[in-house]
Amino acid sequence: MPDIIPSDAREIARRLEERREQAPVGNELLDRLDADRAPELFRRLVGTEAQCHPAEMIAYGTMLARFPRRPAADLFIRLSRLVCDAQPKLRKCADALGMPDPFESFWPPDPETYAFNGTLSWVANQGSQASFALSSYTDMVVYFSGCVSLVQRVRDLKIDAPVEFVEYYEGGASEELTELALDVVQDGLDRGDDPQEALFRARLLEESIADFWKSAANSC
């Protein structure tokens, strides 16, 4: 018999955390990072990041059109603003790393680069409000913690990294925004969304974040 998942956003988040501890998806970029490979790995990370931004903006717009009500609309608008505000900062990272505009380049051309985009788009088009909000919560928790770990590894190994790169990746997740995401999950569950579906799709998105890091680590 499958586990019965309660319609409680924080309990589902706790189960996701348990699954993360029992079966971590990993961060291949951290595993491969060293001083010799760092410049190319940094460039691949910036390139991979840039390929995700358009998919994120479209997904948040899709969800706003599907669920134009509070608190869901507040979450989607704020996530859109978060990505929009990050784009000029990512361009500065690219400039500091001697790259062309990463938003004008189809690079890196690897399947892993676009796994996150595909999962996020699928959840936005077919998932419930609770599924997308829980996926967004997972994205923030897992992605930002990975970024913090990356910057810490750069510092521990005394790797020379552009200040623009460090400033972009050193920030953690906003507690206010992650709490809002859980509120939106709960609102969806209260309206009848399937908690099992939400858990499945959020875990799938987490696995696609592992592909994101793998894309950045794929060369060298």
Major beta-sheet overview:
none
Tell me roughly what share of residues is in helical segments.
over 70%
Shape assignment: globular
Provide the residue-averaged pLDDT.
95
Strand fraction equals under 5%
Count the strands?
Answer: 0
Distance between the termini: 45 Å
Class from secondary-structure proportions: mainly alpha
Weakly predicted, low-confidence segments: none
Radius of gyration: 17 Å
Order of helices and strands: HHHHHHHHH
Number of helices: 9
Compile the SSE list and pairings:
Layout (H helix, E strand, L loop, with lengths): L8 H14 L5 H5 L5 H29 L5 H25 L18 H12 L2 H28 L6 H7 L5 H16 L4 H22 L4
Helix pairs in contact: 1-9, 3-4, 3-5, 3-9, 4-7, 4-8, 5-9, 6-8, 6-9
Explain this structure.
The chain has helices at residues 9-22, 28-32, 38-66, 72-96, 115-126, 129-156, 163-169, 175-190, 195-216. It is mainly α. It contains nine helices and no strands. The model has no long low-confidence stretch (mean pLDDT 95). The longest helix has 29 residues, at 38-66.
Short synopsis of the structure:
This protein has 220 residues and is mainly α. It is built from nine helices and no strands.
Key words describing this protein structure:
mainly alpha; globular; 0% strand; 220 residues; 72% helix
